[in-house]
Amino acid sequence: MASHIVGYPRMGPKRELKFALESFWDGKSSAEDLEKVAADLRASIWKQMSEAGIKYIPSNTFSYYDQVLDTTAMLGAVPDRYSWTGGEIGHSTYFSMARGNATVPAMEMTKWFDTNYHFIVPELSPATKFSYASHKAVSEYKEAKALGVDTVPVLVGPVSYLLLSKAAKGVEKSFSLLSLLDSILPIYKEVVTELKAAGASWIQFDEPTLVKDLAAHELAAFSSAYAALESALSGLNVLIETYFADVPAESYKTLTSLSGVTAYGFDLVRGTKTLELIKSAGIPSGKYLFAGVVDGRNIWADDLAASLSTLQSLEAVVGKDKLVVSTSCSLMHTAVDLVNETKLDSEIKSWLAFAAQKVVEVNALGKALAGQKDEAYFAANAAAQASRRSSPRVNNEEVQKAAAALKGSDHRRATPVSARLDAQQKKLNLPILPTTTIGSFPQTMDLRRVRREYKAKKISEEEYVSAIKEEISKVVKIQEELDIDVLVHGEPERNDMVEYFGEQLSGFAFTANGWVQSYGSRCVKPPIIYGDVSRPNPMTVFWSKMAQDMTPRPMKGMLTGPVTILNWSFVRNDQPRFETCYQIALAIKKEVEDLEAGGIQVIQIDEAALREGLPLRKSEHAFYLDWAVHSFRITNCGVQDTTQIHTHMCYSNFNDIIHSIINMDADVITIENSRSDEKLLSVFREGVTYGAGIGPGVYDIHSPRIPSTEEIADRVNKMLAVLDTNILWVNPDCGLKTRKYTEVKPALTNMVAAAKLIRTQLASTK
C-alpha cells in the first residue's frame, strides 16, 4: 500500500535554515553559503522519507520564505516598486518582496488559512505582466533525482493562487482576480512541460481554497483551469491536494469532475464530513484517493487502530490499489523530530509524534493495509493511547467545575465603555493621540544569553533578576527619552509570549527543540496543552510592579489572552477546544486581578490570534466567535472602571469580524494596519461605528525599513478621516522583539514626532 507526505518542515531540526537566512540578511555569509545549507536540508529530508518507505515524496515544498511567494516569483508577478527588470528572480528581489528594503515596504503578510503560518500576499492588477521567472520547482525535482529520489513536485494551484491574492493599490473595485487565470496558465504549462521532460511522473497541485465557501463562478474557475491544462498534463499523474477543513459538497463535485486529474487528497482529520461524503458520493472509477488520516497540524501520536479502521472502510469505496495513506496537510505545521527531545517527560513523550515520527506512522499504516502490520509497533501505540486516556495528570476536577460554572453569564463589564474611558482619562491624564508600543522591545544576544544561563542554572536567581531589572530600566529610560505616553517593560524575561505563560500554568508541557516556522526565519516553539489548565501562582506581577516603580508614566501589564494561548499551542484533542479556552481564561482572570491589586492601571491582554482561529466555513463562524469573545471578556470582567484594558491583534483580515471585536468590550485595541495597505480603515469608511480606543498600526515592524515622520503623519491623518480624535492611539503594528535598537529608536522617534506634529496642527485649528 502506497504512502504520501503532503509537505515537510523546512527549518531543519535545529533551525539551520533560520540561522543561515539571518546570517545572509546581515551580510555575514554569502548566497552560496545559504544555498549550501538549504541543499543539505533538502537532501536530508528526501533521504529520510525515502528510507522510511514513503512512495510519494514531495519536492518544491522547501522555501526561503513561503510557498506563495515562491509562486509569485515563478510567475514573475513582481510589483513595480521593486524595480525588477526581468530574468530569473534573485535573492535581492525575492527578499525585498518579503521583507522590504531601505526604500520600499514589503508586500502584505497574512495568516495561511487558520494556521499560525504566514504567507506573502500577491499584489495583482490588470497591468501585471507575467513571465516564467523562477525555475525552482524544476531545479529541485532534478536535485532530488540526482540523489536517487523520484519526487512529486508540488505547486500552489493556479486558482488558489489567484483567490489568495489581492488587487494592487488603486485598482478598480470591479476587477476580478480570476480574470488573470488565462494569463498565468501558460506559465504553469511551461513548468509542467519542463517537469515532464525532467522525468516527473506525478505532480501535486495544492488547491486548499476548495475547503472554503466558494461562489459558483469560483468553482467554475477550477473546471476552466484544469481543462486548459489537460493537454500539458497529459502523461502525468495529477494529484489535487486539499486540507484544513471539510470540502463542501459542491466543491467535492467540482473537484472530482476536473479534467486530467488522477488523484484527490483530503484532510480526514479536520474533514470528518468529507469522509462521509467520500463514502456516500464515491470516487470516480480508476482515480486515487490520498487519505489524510495522520494529523499534520498537531503533535499527538496517531491512534493507529482508529486510522486503520478508517482506511479499511475506504478500501471498499476506491479499492485497495487506489488508496494512498497520507498526512492531513503539510507537516510544516508541526515540530521536526521527537528524537531531539531528550528532557521531555517520558510519559508525555510517549503520547507524541513530530514530523519524523508521523512519516513512520504513515508508512506503518500503509504496510498494515497491505497485510504487513507491525504488531509490536501497533501494540506500543495502543498502550500509549490508553496511558493518555487514564493519566491522572490530564484531568483536574476542580478546574472542570470552575469552567462549567461559567455558563449562564456573558461576563461583560457593568459600565459602558464610553463611561469607562472618561473615568480612565481622569486618572491617566493622557494627551490626545496617545503613543504606546505593543509590548516587546528588541531581544539582544546578551538578553538571550542571560535567560539561557539562568535556565541552565549557570547564574543565580539573584543575578538573573538583577540583569532583567537592568534591561527593564534601559527600556523604560528609552521610552521616557522618546516621550512615549504609555510605557511597556519590554518583556525581557520572555522568549515567547505564549511559552512564557504556559511554563507557569498547569496542564502545559514544553519542548527543547519543538520549533515551528511562523514566517521567513521566524520560528515559534508552541507549548503542548496536555491536561486541564490552572494558574498556581502569579506570573507577571513581580516584573510589572518593578517596571511601574521606575516611572511616573502608566506602565502596561502585558498578558497573552486565552484564545491566543490556545491557537498558538499544540492543543489536547480529547476535549472541545472551547473547554480548554475557558480554563485558560479563568487562569488569566486571576492574573489580571492581581495586576490591578498591584497598582497596574493599564493591562494589555493580547489576542493576536483570535482571527486566526476563525473556522474556514462561514456556517461555523458564529459558534467560534461566541466562545472566543466570551473567553476574552472572562479575563477582565471583574476590574474597576478606572483600569484600562487593552488588547492587540495582528496579521489577519479583521474587517469581516469587526462586530465581534467590538463585542470584546476592550477599552483600547491596537491592531495591525500598515502592512495591509490600511485595509482595516475601509470598514470605518463604510459606516461601522467604533466607540472604544483604537490604535491602527502606523508602521510595519516586520521590515527593517524606518518610516519617516511625514509618512507616519500621513497614515495618522488617514485614520483621523474615519476615526474620532479622542479615541485614536498611535502605535506600531506589532511588538518590536524581532528588530534591532538601531531600527527601533529612529522609528519610534519619528512616530512620536508625527503624533506631536498632528496634535499641534489640531490645536491650531480649534
From TrEMBL:
It is found in: Cytoplasm, Cytosol. Belongs to the vitamin-B12 independent methionine synthase family. GO terms for cellular component: cytosol. The keyword Zinc applies. One of its GO terms (molecular function) is methionine synthase activity. Its EC number is 2.1.1.14. Signal peptide: none annotated. Zn(2+) binds at H648, C650, H659, E672, C734. It catalyses: 5-methyltetrahydropteroyltri-L-glutamate + L-homocysteine = tetrahydropteroyltri-L-glutamate + L-methionine. Pfam families: Meth_synt_1, Meth_synt_2. It is an enzyme of class 2 (transferase). GO terms for biological process: methylation. InterPro entries: Cbl-indep_Met_Synth_N, Cobalamin-indep_Met_synthase, Met_Synth_C/arc, UROD/MetE-like_sf. This is 5-methyltetrahydropteroyltriglutamate--homocysteine S-methyltransferase.
